[in-house]
Structure formats: structure tokens, C-alpha cells
Amino acid sequence: MRNHHRNVKKFLFTSLAVLLSVPVGLLSQDVAHANALSSQRVNELLAPHKSSYGYYIDQYLLNRKDNTTPATNPSTALFTNTFGQLWSGDGTKKNPKILQENLDKSAAISQHVTKTEELRSFLTDREDSPYDLIRGLGPYANSFIQKANAKTQYTSLPTHELPADTKDDPSAGLIWADDKSQLGPMVNLVDTMALYYYSSSGNAKQYYKYVRPFRQDSQVKVNPYLKAAFDATPQNDYDFPSGHTTQAFESGLAMAYAFPERFQQLVTRSSEVGYDRILVGRHSPLAVMGGRVLGTAVAAAVLNNSQNKEIAQKAYGNAQKVLAKSKLTQGKDDYQNYQENLKNYTLRMTYGFKPLSSTKVPMRVPKGAEVLLKTRFPYLNATQRREVLYTTGFTAGYPLTQDPEGWGRLNLFKAANGFGRLLTNTTVNMDAHKGLFNARDTWRNNLSGDGTLIKKGTGSLKLLGANHFKGGVVIKGGTLIAGKQNALGSGNVKISRGTLNLSSRKVTVKGHYAQTSKGTLQLSSNNRLAVQRNGRFAGKLVVSLNSRPAKKLVIIKVHKRLGKFKQVKINGKYGHYHVKYTQKTVELVH
């Protein structure tokens, strides 16, 4: 009898939904798209892959001078399946074609150096590597220099070529910044990340013994102010992997952890340091790509070490208290152009090399890599941050991307834009009281996948991608801002409570739209909501009218309208307009 009553209730509820032409899932519970992956399957995809050395974050302290072989040093073993397949330390060219292409690219880049690049690459060579990353702070750079007591001896090109006995020491005898300064905790994190024995690229260099490009090919042009100094360096001063680039990613990711407001700009500058090493004639593309891989792995390892937890926490708190609240300068920000940063970072992932193997190999996320995004996405849990890395990873098969753990395929610039795919139901719970990215954030990637996006909490999330994820959107708290026409994907949209804000001229809902009595839709006279299927309206409508609209303005168009807003608020100078409903539209009329 109990089952009979339950079936009757289910039948009546389902029938009501059919009569209203709105799916049961939108009226009762939030159901993921049928093809969304289970939690178990997602965990399987995100599971780390063990390498011959184990996991880098567990073994990184073995990167010592007395360990240089892949059997004893994880920093050397990291490249066994990548650079080790192209070149052997005994001088054997395992892939002559790629190695020649590497030299050709070195020559081409070094032969076409602008005046701006000549100065920047000279400074990159001479300055201490952490100091190089300060420019990635943009308008905060001068404040950092002042409050961290940061120093360098080099600010311009010299008047003549540096002598041959110039020390090959980027720090030039100076300590780059003071760990007892106002920004001491932030400086301490950078030092812990980049200036200890385990952060060195030197052990891998001594194992692979790959000769510097300017010594292999006279077509590689060395910065004229540095030629004598470079020529005087010992023959066992090798190319792969680039030490400057390794330290750049260690330093840049340390700064980005403490000051995630500049995450993408700092990783862009980190990659640019590698490019500067090619411009100056000191390194090859493969070497700087290797530096990116090693520097990223070291950064994650240091942040995962429990002994560094307090150092990292203090650095973040210090940067937010001192640097974030400092007086900004009006100086030039070399990394203010998002599209330019995206283009440059993406190019430097491969430097134009073509794939060497299958591009279909699934992404792998290294153990502990999710910590790199911890402050960038404080409202996501560790599994979700791994999913971000998994769904934004670089295409397989390119040089230096085939390491067993997956360090070479991490695309940190793209990862900072949020998920690339929604593999399953994804709950985003933002607490605005915690500030920064907890209060407001923007996802720029074009979201695909079968999962449902569930927005909770009090913070505001803006979607700027051309999205086509199928699981739909459910808003349970805070604000979701649709910044592009297809920002809401291709599924249903439900506002249980909280606000959907339209900031694109037209926003399309490709499924059904349902708004409960506790939901709010917010738009202006410049915005339109187009619902391709049925729309059920309740709750609140807020319209901003800052300019005189047409006598009749259609703000919502649906296949079939069901219900009306319980409250309508017209803000602005033209608040005397009111709402008119038709079978397929919601209009503003005079």
C-alpha cells in the first residue's frame, strides 16, 4: 500500500510538470545530465600516475649534487621520457631532426631582437631571477620594490661590452630582496621555492650535457654586451634545462601563490624569462621548455611540504595585508593585455614544434599539482582544482610534454581561467565575506562537458566563455553573471535563490528556464534573455533603465511563458515603465 501511494504521488507530480511543460528535475531536484560522470569515474581520471622515481613532490629533496642520474635524482629522471629520447649525455643525437630544429629556432629568435627585447633580455640575464619576476606585478611592482627593499645593479644597457671576466652571477653580489622587510614573509616564500639546492637545474644539466646553442651554431646571435662573458664560461656550462627559466617558474609561482591577483601575469612573465634566454643567445627552446617543467614541479613540491605550510600561509596573508593595500603606481604594465598574454604563453608551450607522438593520450594531473591553484581558487576543493588542471591541460605529444606524471602538459595560464570542462555536477560555493576571489571571480574558458554548474554561497561568478556544457545551471545563492550569449551552456537554467545577472547584450538559454519565488533576474535595457524552450517565472525582476528605451521593449522571449514575476523593480530615471506579459514575451512598456 505504501508503494502504491508513493507511485500515485510520483504520477501526479510528473503529470503536473508535463502540464506546465517544465521538466520534473527543474521543479523538484537538481539532476545532472544523463552523461555526466560519476564521482568514482572522475576520481579515476584525476588519480596521479606514478613515475619510475615515484612522485616528484615526494622525492624532490633528492635533487642534490651527489645525485645526478635518473636512478637517484628525480629532477634528472623527470626528463627521461622527454629530452632523454632526443639526446644522450654521451653526445648521441637520438632525434637529429628535432635537435636541428631546436638550433634553427634558437638562431631565428636570436637574429630578430627588437631594442626593447635587447634591453629586457640583458636585464633578465644579469638580474637575480626572483628580481626578474617583479615586473610581472605590474602596477604593484614599485610598491613591492620599496616594501621588500628589493635591489639590482642593472637598470639599463651598459655603455660597452662586459669584460670576459664578468662573473656569471645574475645576483651581481646583491640579495634580491630583504626577508626582514615589510614584505618579508612573501620574500621568504620565494627564497624557499627558488634559492635552495633542491631547486637547482644544475644536476640535470650535468647529466644531459647538452651544449649551449651559441657553441653549436654560429647563426645563434649572442647579445653584443654579453658575448665576451658568454665565451669565457666553461665548456661544461650546459644548456638543458634552463636554470633561469626554472627559477622564473619557481619564483613566479611563489609570488602568484601569495598574490593571486596577478596569477596569469606572473606566469606569463615566467614564460617570458625563458624567451629572453633564447633572445640573448644563451638557451634553446627545448631548454626553456624543460625549465618550465622543472620549475613547476619544484614549486608544487615546496608548497606540498608540510614544513612549508606556515611559510606559505604567512606569505599569502602578508601580501594581502601589505601589497594588495599599497598605493598603486601609474607605471606601465607590460602584461595588462589579456589576449597578448594568452597568445604568448600558448606559443611558449611548444615554440612551434610539431607533435612527436600521439596527441590523443588522456591528460594526467601530477600528484600535488592542485596546490598551485589553491589561492587562485580558494572556493574550490582540492579535487575540483585537480579537475581544473585536468580539463585545461595541453594537448599530448609535443616535445617536453610526455613525462609520466604530466608536469609538461599543465597549462597554468588556461587553468587560471577556471574549468575547461564540467565532467560532473560542479558546486561552486563562494563566501563573499572572505574577500578577493571568494567574493568575485571570472571564468574565461569555453566550458564543455556534461556536468551541471551549481552556484551557491554569497559571492559572484562571471562566465565569459562561449559555453556549451550540457548539464545546465542551478543558482542556489549569490550571483551568476552571464557575460556572453552562450555563457549558460546548452542545458536548462534554474534560479532557486540568488541572482542571475545578464551583462551580455543577448543571453540564450537553450533549454528550459525556471525561476522560483526566491530567485532574482537582473538586467538592463541593453540586455535580452532568449529562452529557446519554456520559461516559468516567479520571484523578482530587476531592470536598470539608465537611458530612454523604445516605447515597447521586449526583454525576455520564450517558446512558452508560464507564470509571472512576483516583484518587479525598475531602477533609474525611467522607473515609470512597467512590465507587460504575452504568451511568448516579457516586455517593458511606457
From TrEMBL:
InterPro entries: Autotrns_rpt, PAP2/HPO, PAP2/HPO_sf, Pectin_lyase_fold/virulence
Domain called Phosphatidic acid phosphatase type 2/haloperoxidase: residue spans: 189-303
Coiled coil: none
Signal sequence segment: 1-34
Keywords: Signal
Pfam families associated with the record: PAP2, PATR
Protein name: Phosphatase PAP2 family protein
